[in-house]
Specification:
2 copies of one chain form a homodimer.
Chain A: H1 3-17, E1 19-21, H2 22-29, H3 33-45, E2 50-52, E3 55-57, H4 59-66, H5 74-85, E4 92-96, H6 100-108, E5 115-119, H7 122-128, E6 134-138, E7 141-143, E8 150-151, H8 153-160, E9 164-169, E10 173-175, E11 179-182, H9 185-196, E12 198-204, E13 216-219, E14 226-228, E15 247-248
Parallel strand pairs in A: 4-5, 4-9, 5-6, 9-12, 12-14, 14-15
Antiparallel strand pairs in A: 1-3, 2-3, 7-8, 10-11, 11-13
Helix pairs in contact in A: 1-3, 2-3, 5-6, 6-7, 8-9
The first copy, chain A, binds a DNA duplex (30 and 30 nucleotides) through residues 3, 22-23, 31-35, 37-38, 53-54.
DNA sequence: ATAAAAAAAGCAAAAAACTGCAAAATAAAT
DNA sequence: ATTTATTTTGCAGTTTTTTGCTTTTTTTAT
């Protein structure tokens, strides 16, 4: 078997499965592992793939991982935010949660729209101050270093004194039976307070989070008035949510 | 399973849920928790995520890096901040005002110093959350678009409920006879409330502002306990302030 | 203050990578 | 066709990396 041929096979395997182990290739090609190792080393030098300990991975795989400086699934989150923006109307009073999806919503708020926005997220607040016609009110409290949001009893008390038309919230996990759940108990307390302060609650969540759950419960799925994912509202993945009194966008 | 695969999975989980715990990952990947710990440590070193006790959190959440553009007289403001830092001590409860000079103070707070910091400035809060041993409490309220600080009656009310050892404030204008003055009436109201909430008040001001005044008065010069400028404390420009009961640094 | 959980450090077994080398295959030259 | 040079391949020994386990220290929660 020619070297060229072997390397072609290795590349095929890598591109097909995104990753490959040297031992597997050696077996498939029936050559020594040293030969495979050398082939992979060459292909790596030619930038055809990326050699890693124990195997090789495709370039497409690696390039998408290096670009993780930006937000995960940004395009999908923007798609969600675009739908959410359609719910906003002049003179509205809304709450915007923390998290990257809500951050995209904040970004996409039209400059001319006259809004009163409550938030407890420092990054969201920073974004909102750049909107000329948006009044920004920050819910104070102790700032969580992880999430960069106000948390704790003071925050919850402050939330109890407001009342907004719409709140746009994210969640860690969402399931049609178990509702919205979180990893963090304190976060749950805050989100509960947010929902209590809202006439209507809009959940923004990428579809990957559907049908997942964790330890602490924020609310049942019926506490949500509108759920927005990046999917088409008719998508089958959303079927489980149709039984509930829930608008899907 | 290749190490790269594992790390990619970890990144996916983290970016999807913003936060994961090591034990969950270990179970998902069916590897020992030590391996997960090491992977997360690596990813943290590569700035792909942030490792926290018990798990990891997504970077999208963390420090949107408050890169200050060009700050006027930055070196002098840093000099002031360096002096101010010497007043801080472990376990202290302080307030940090908005403005570029106070921002430099926030930047220079040592990482190991254990502090409780109140602030009403979004940029200062953003900076402070990066300090591991600093508890950050944001005074909520309506956010002023120019100053990016909380203002208004709610802010003032929130301020009335706290009491700090030191407050570090800036001012628009300062004069030995007329005291601290501002161009903006609302700002004055907030600063008054800050001073009232502080056992001791430290004024940070570059010397260019000395002997200037404006329309609305924040307080007399005796309300200030310590004044810090970039000048040597013995500098003649400070002579007019020596009559007062005022420490000059 | 105490107990529980997590992190860090050290260690050893296993897997993988690297090295040099010799045999085999290929190509080139006479 | 035969010899020679070059490249390729497999092998053995050594080094490095990875991984899980145990013990100790640190952190967190009660």
């Amino acid at each position: 078997m020619l070297k060229e041929e072997r390397q072609r096979t290795i590349l095929n395997e890598v591109e097909l499965h995104n990753r490959v182990q040297l031992t597997d290739i050696a077996e498939i090609l029936d050559v020594s592992i040293d030969t495979v190792r050398r082939d992979v080393k060459e292909l790596d030098a030619e930038n055809k793939l990326r050699k890693v300990h124990g195997g090789a991975i495709s370039l497409g795989f690696i390039s998408s991982s290096t670009r993780s400086t930006s937000v995960y699934a940004l395009d999908r989150k923007i798609a969600i935010a675009e739908k959410a923006v359609t719910l906003l109307k002049d003179g509205g009073v809304i709450f915007i949660d923390g998290g990257t999806t809500c951050m995209e919503l904040a970004r996409l708020i039209p400059a001319q729209l006259q809004l009163t926005c409550f938030t407890l997220s420092l990054p969201v607040a920073m974004e909102l101050v750049s909107k000329p016609n948006t009044t920004v009110i920050f819910i104070g409290g102790e700032i969580s270093k992880d999430a960069q949001i106000s948390m704790g009893s003071s925050t919850i008390h402050n939330l109890s004194e407001i009342r907004v038309d719409y709140s746009f919230i994210g969640t860690g996990y969402v399931d049609s039976r178990y509702g919205l759940t979180e990893f963090d108990w304190d976060i749950v307390q805050v989100k509960k307070a947010v929902i209590k302060s809202s006439k209507k609650t809009v959940l923004l969540s990428i579809s990957e989070k559907l049908n997942s759950q964790h330890r602490y419960k924020t609310c049942d799925i019926n506490a949500i008035n509108t759920m927005i994912t990046e999917l088409d509202p008719e998508n089958n993945l959303l079927n489980l949510f149709r039984n509930h009194d829930l608008r899907i966008l």
